[in-house]
Specification:
The protein is of the alpha+beta class and 698 residues long. It folds into six domains: 70 residues, Helix hairpin bin (Helix Hairpins), CATH 1.10.287; 234 residues, DNA ligase/mRNA capping enzyme (D-amino Acid Aminotransferase, Chain A, domain 1), CATH 3.30.470; 76 residues, OB fold (Dihydrolipoamide Acetyltransferase, E2P); 73 residues, DNA polymerase, domain 1 (Orthogonal Bundle); 71 residues, DNA polymerase, domain 1; 68 residues, 3-Layer(aba) Sandwich (Rossmann fold). It contains 25 helices and 24 strands. Strand 21, helix 23 and strand 22 form a beta-alpha-beta unit. Helix 1 packs antiparallel against helix 2, helix 13 packs antiparallel against helix 14 and helix 17 packs across helix 18. The chain starts with a strand and ends with a helix. The structure holds zinc ion.
Length: 698
């Protein structure tokens, strides 16, 4: 019974109660649907990332993920930290805190020869007693050249993860580790939950992803990483997990730390348990009996490892039995039951014939060493990248020096060091260029810049690189317009910038070397076809410094046309999560350049599409364009982030705190302190209904 003064109503007839009940049933249903979706996505993640045997297409997977995202957005109360949607990366951190490992992460001693390996096993024999020695089983594993991390699972859920640090405590990189797709956020355990489990392993980048990352960095003017391990370490230490999420890091488990509630007696037990729980383990691990089998494994992988998609610089050899490990114990630094057999890196010695200069599309000038051809890891090498002049000076590389070259996940090798003992009087220090080797314009280096740069907008070398980039597969994708053709067209004065591409006539091509009539026709057709590419490709193709293909996609999501992007202020650009002040500044600078204006005009007049082809609607010149909003309290029709997205789509800006610069406070129910502050500062406050009137087209 419900009492309203004298009035009595049976509870089942009281409307608010009935509503609440049906709402509860509905909530339960949605929750079940969300959990069901998460289970399915998790299963497919495992099939794809751990077992490498996907059961559904990428498209079907995307549909599942989209559905989950939609439901979670509408019902944020059901979002959990281990939902697959949380992999996209959370909010940026101000700094890393440290975390104590439950069990210390010790380092490994290295051996470099079969002799040293024999000494290692002999020492084990002395410590264990001779009879037991014959029964020592060793597990051999590839030593992946990555970054060691410790993952903590509580009741089957990924709680935190840290770098090795000093062995006792490391940096809390949980948010970044969550973005690694093959690290399970929830373990697969049908039976009792394991209360606590520390999983140790290696985070790494495959060679192909490493190269793609370096290419992207060169394009955007950022310094390149020397090897996949450095790139991995750098990626794990990014404060913005959204950026880490783009790096395609991978994880492989190789050992166990603290654990409770699970019985494990040997390393093979441990690896099998990991497999059952859905934790990725290398398929190349092997149980060896006796030293001979260990030798054979090490010998086999000495050459086989070059065929792996990642760098493996040695073999880790571990005593299998945990009982034997207990007897053997550890020194203060490393366990006595484990050793790393390191392969010598594939290096070669050769002489630097000359140092040449290369001009990039944004005018970056980089040194390249021309070498006396030498055989290295299956190929003949005659060039090596020196990355930039700082690198060259730090390593003190001179013309005619003998140098050690090495491959590190790259096709182009790098110079490791100079053999100073072999240096003669002929060694010449390479002087930094004062002018561009191609156009003769003065070069300079900005503060905090790694690269020396030619600033001449008409530099033909830059024009060539820019046109190459414009026509490349990830930009406008013009087949047949490759480096050799561009070279000739620029040298013959037919192309000065990439907009000129659309004004080429078949006759222009007839005089070119190795260009048949048929292929010049095909080229004209390919050029015409490229006019209808979507906005993100065009933004990428423009070659704005610091804007690579991924940033271009982000920008194309926020702006519906080139005009709109060109008109955006640095402030509006920085409001986009993925855009930092450097990129924003670079975009504004690019579009304020009169040279850009004339190129844009040429592109548009040629009929190149400059608008988004997606279904995404943006209301142009809306009443709130350019105005700053803060959203607070609970709204009826939107979640707060939906309201913010809407404001941005309408051309407004949003911020999380009220200041003098705020134009409107959109206040829902229970607005809290922001309302007080807005009133104090005289900021206009609108209700949801007033807001809707504001944005509706009049
Ligand atoms: Zn130049």
């Amino acid at each position: 019974m419900i009492y309203f003064g004298n009035l009595r109503i049976p509870a089942k007839n009281y409307l608010p109660f009935r509503r609440r009940n049906s709402a509860m049933v509905k909530e339960k249903k949605i929750r079940r649907e969300i959990e069901n979706l998460r289970d399915r996505i998790r299963r497919h993640d495992r099939k794809y990332y751990v077992d490498a045997r996907p059961e559904i297409t990428d498209y079907e997977y995307d549909q599942l993920m989209r559905k989950l995202l939609r439901l979670e957005k509408a019902h944020p109360q059901f979002i959990t930290p281990h939902s697959p949607t949380q992999r996209v990366g959370g909010e940026p951190l101000a700094e890393f805190t440290t975390i104590d490992h439950l069990k210390p992460m010790l380092s490994i001693d290295n051996v470099y020869s079969n002799e040293e390996l024999k000494e290692f096993t002999a020492r084990l024999g002395r410590l264990l007693g001779d009879e037991t020695l014959r029964d020592v089983g060793y597990v051999t594993e590839l030593k992946i050249d990555g970054v060691a991390v410790n993952l903590m699972y509580e009741m089957g859920v990924f709680k935190w993860g840290a770098t090795r640090g000093d062995g006792n405590r490391g940096d809390d990189v949980t948010a970044n580790l969550k973005t690694i797709r093959n690290i399970p956020l929830q373990l697969e355990q049908p039976g009792d939950r394991i209360p606590s489990l520390e999983v140790r392993g290696e985070v790494y980048l495959e060679n192909e992803d490493f190269q793609a990352l370096n290419t992207e960095r060169e394009e955007t003017g950022e310094p390149q990483f020397a090897n996949p391990r450095n790139a991995t370490a750098g990626s794990l230490k990014l404060l913005n997990p959204r950026l880490t999420a783009k790096r395609r890091l991978k994880f492989t488990a190789h050992s166990i730390g603290h654990y409770e509630g699970v019985e494990i007696n040997s390393h093979m037990d441990c690896l099998n348990t990991f497999r059952k729980l859905g934790i990725p383990v290398s398929p190349h691990n092997s149980l060896c009996h006796g030293l001979e089998e260990v030798y054979t494994y090490c010998e086999e992988w000495r050459t086989r490892r070059t065929g792996l998609p990642y760098e493996a610089d040695g073999i880790v050899i571990k005593v299998n039995s945990f009982d034997q490990r207990k007897i053997l114990g550890a020194t203060s630094k490393a366990p006595r039951w484990m050793v790393a057999y390191k392969y010598p890196p594939e290096q070669a010695v050769t002489r630097v014939q000359k140092i040449a200069l290369q001009v990039g599309k944004t005018g970056t000038i980089t040194p390249v060493a021309h070498l006396e051809p030498v055989h290295l890891a299956g190929t003949t090498v005659s060039r090596a990248t020196l990355h930039n002049f700082d690198e060259m000076e730090r390593k003190d590389i001179r013309v005619n020096d003998y140098v050690v070259v090495q491959k590190a996940g790259e096709i182009i090798p790098q110079v490791v060091k100079v053999i100073k003992e072999k240096r003669t009087g002929e060694a010449k220090i390479f002087k930094l260029p004062k002018t561009c080797p191609e156009c003769g314009a003065e070069v300079s280096r900005g503060e905090e810049e790694v690269y020396l740069r030619c600033h001449n907008p008409l530099c033909p070398a830059q024009a060539k690189r820019r046109i190459q980039y414009f026509a490349s597969r990830k930009a406008m994708d013009i087949e047949g317009l490759g480096p050799a053709v561009i070279e000739q067209l620029v040298d013959n004065g037919l192309l000065k910038d990439y907009a000129d591409v659309y004004y080429l006539k078949p006759d222009d091509m007839s005089g070119l070397e190795r260009m048949a009539e048929k292929s010049s026709q095909n080229l004209i057709e390919a050029i015409n076809n490229s006019k209808s590419r979507d906005l993100d490709r065009l933004i990428c193709a423009l070659g704005i410094q610091h804007v690579g293909s991924r940033s271009a996609e982000v920008l194309a999501e926020h702006f519906s046309s080139i005009d709109e992007l060109a008109g955006a202020s640095a402030e509006a650009l920085e409001d986009i999560k993925e855009v930092g002040p450097v990129m924003a500044g670079s975009i504004v600078k690019f579009f304020s350049d009169p040279h850009t204006t004339s190129i844009m005009k040429k592109l548009m007049e040629a009929g190149v599409n400059t608008r988004s082809l997606g279904a995404k609607k943006t209301v142009e010149k809306s009443a709130i364009a350019g105005l700053a909003f803060v959203v607070t309290g609970t709204l009826e029709k939107y979640t707060r982030s939906e309201a913010e997205d809407l404001i941005k789509r309408m051309g407004g800006r949003t911020s999380s705190s009220v200041s003098k610069k705020t134009d409107y406070l959109l206040a829902g129910e229970v607005p809290g302190s922001k309302l007080d502050k807005a009133r104090k500062l005289g900021v206009k406050v609108v209700t949801e209904a007033e807001f809707e009137r504001l944005i509706s087209p009049s």
